[in-house]
Design brief:
Layout lengths: L20 E3 L18 E3 L26 E2 L19
Antiparallel strand pairs: 1-2, 2-3
Length: 91
Amino acid sequence: MAEQARFDPEIHHCPKCGGELEDCWDGELISAFIGEWSDDRFRCCGKLITPLPYPRLSKDCSMNRTPSCGYFGLEKLGFVIGKIKLCLMKQ
């Protein structure tokens, strides 16, 4: 069985804005929609705006965040097929 790339949300952030990433992969080796190495596996959730423009809403609400930068794959985050190279993003 191939070694799976380890995604850690505490370490990996959006390569464009530095915001949080949402992992859309379900973790199955064979997935009908999104695979481990898909180009659209991760979605940028945007950066949290401080102070919160809408403090009564959750910090995860899109109204309290910058716009999404789009979708990314493992290669954009610094992972290399065959051996794993971590690219620590500056916040």
